[in-house]
Fold this protein.
Amino acid sequence: MYLKYNFAVLFFFGIIILLPFIGIFSKVNYELNSIYDFIQNSYTHRLIYFSIYQAFLSAILSCFLAIPFALSLNRHKDLKIIKFIISLCGFCFVIPTILIVFAVIKLFGNNGFYNSYFNLYEMFSIETIFGMKGILIAHVLLNTPFATRLFFQSLNSIPRKYYEISSSLNIMFIGNLIKLELPYIRQNFLTVFSIIFSLCFLSFAIVMALGGGPKYSTIEVAIYQHALFELNFDKAILLSFLQIFICLFFLMIGFYKLKGSNFFEVDQIIFIHPYKNYSFIKIIDCFVIILFSIFLFSPILSILYNFINSEFYIFLIKEKFLEAFYNSLIISITTGIIVSVIGFIISSILVINYKNIIFQQSIFLISSSIIIISPIIFSLGYFIVLGELRYLQFIKYLVVILINCLFLLPFSILILFNSLKNIFLNFENFQQTFRLSIKNYLIILLPLIKKNIIFVFAFSSVLTFGDFTIISFFKGQDFDTLPSYLYKLISIYRFDEASFVAGTILMLSMIIFLLIDNLNYQGRSAIKT
Amino acid sequence: MKSLLIFLITLSISLSINAERLTIYTYDSFVSDWGPGPIIEKIFEEKYKTDIEFVAVDSAATLLNKVILEGNTSKADIVLGLDMNLFDLAEKSDLFTTHNIKNINNIMNLPLNWESNKFVPYNYGYFSFVYNEESIDSPPKSMDELINSTNARIVIQDPRTSTPGLGLLTWMKALYGDKAGDEWKKLNKKIISVTKGWTDAYYNFFIAGEADMVLSYTTSPAAHIMFEERYDILATTFEEGNYITIEFAGILNNSKNKDLANKFLNFMLSEEFQSVIPSTNIMYPVTKIKNLPDAFDKLEIPNFIQINPKEINKNKEKWIDEWLNAS
């Protein structure tokens, strides 16, 4: 009955995914020798090794640092401030990475806060922050709060009864920790580790700005450099395929356990933890929470501090800033609208055809394959396929929005499909009884799913707002978004103006994020997957 | 359909109005507030009653890439800011046409003979490692000394994106030939960062105190003398010589304003243009000018080293691979 819609949806997905690959394949030089040379090249080996090595170290460090923090937070979860800290921990998921880069230079650089006040460089004979150290610090700052939030959720799901049982069995603090709390963290450890690993493996802005050259480069950055610096599409394409294979491999070993996105679902079960009031534990917890909060949220504090101290009224009227701001707004809001509308339409079609398993599965397969291909590969494909068209302002808007949408649509379908399915099935009889047309029926369903759509809109807008990867391919002298403008300012030493831009990005993303987070705290969570 | 027609008509009208506008592709620092661009633009526009549009790319080495990528659809009339390391690639690209300046070597005052009827030089200089007197006690007197005995945190630029970066690549090759890879390995131990462009390396690292030495030009100290009266920033000159860089401009084949573009290339060799160069682009002018700033008298002039541009173009990719492998 709705066959033509099905084909339209498949066709739509097919075209936008295939187009960049057509571009890529049209430029591949099928010379076996050059491919062989490339694979033999020791620099290629180093790229692979370093990409994996830094991602592994970053993920291990972030996860292990998150455990004590999550444990301490969990013991005092009845406090209001803890709820706020957990909320801030969630913010890292949407904070634009370029802000972390800015904060790391401001805090840990030679002239940064820590070195000016504590003389760290001399103490530990550090020569420079750029390179492995910078990459690790930035990744830890970005991902530890994320891991903390997920571990906290695991701990939070321990039923009160378990504590009561353990206390009736006379199990003491340490026993409780080893027998009850740590196993709960362990359950989730591999999943959290693999998510952070893959985020760091695909890290772009951080490695690009803090890596300090080809010595500390990752595959992701090398693809960009080969394509834009050397115009050597062959190498970029070979690296892209290599990256896809490696991602697929990790996907198979790490992600089979991943269950949807329960990241935003924090239904806090509040009760007084049995060891909360032991004074020794209280002192340690207090120390851990303060220390970690200061360290992990120092980027946010530093950006806000620098923002307040910058002469922001001067930059507010700067044409370049206004242009970038305008571009960012247009791109993120349009992406948000398209992603929520198309997500809703596709989910509706999926739900209406819920009996057509093949169609449903092929849509899910396509959307999950989008997620594993990094945005850089799509950007590269479109960059090639567009040819000279890429210099047209209108096309730039279009393609940046399109690629952003492409990456956010799978998430939106995942979120909307599940809620829509439940609503749809509940009201199906109602539709048949009143013989409503599908169109009218959807109009009736719309208010019921409004909250989820707003959520998808806010989520997509905030991620697009902070995007640095896609815009890197299409930015130019007359086309910048706030993140790419910030990168430009950092690299030409305009730190005063950069402080202002960073503050603006931070505050805007924070406002949207708080909207998302509060959508979930009030009663039922928005995502049920 | 009607609106499309109106759109096309307005587009063609606006294109024809802009026919007398000279579009020049160049690198970012040339058109920055402190660069020569704004002053030159003003003089030329007043003199020839025309309009110049500068389009800046973020680094000089990507300048040629941009034109090659755009091919015949490029809207540029002139490309300004290429240097000798890109000479052969630019020459062979067939994108440039010949200029109308005759006996160019009689007008110019370059340390070497200029042999091209497509490109016109507008300034030159020598690559060098710039340092602060206070942090380096005994500056290196040769590349060997720099690599083997100087104790410094050095920042250089990426040869794939920056002219000085590519300059150092060819400099190393000119000195060490087949052994360049090994010498790069030794030098890389001292290099704390490889930046995309010159500005990032010079300001973000060197001036900010993150590095002791930066790959720049022998003329860089002149800027500190002229604008800050700072005498502690110095440049190394090596016994074996420093690599020379000559920056030039050329007219694109498909330019619709070839007459005006030729006027601009002639203007480039005039006293008006050349006298702006030392104090804004901080390079040597290519003609003898009346008032060279005093700061330039304090600079040492090294012997020059250069590799044949043809050889550079042939081997560039190989040399970049060698550098990547050694990093």
Notes: Confidence is low (pLDDT under 50) at residues 258-262, 521-529 of chain A.
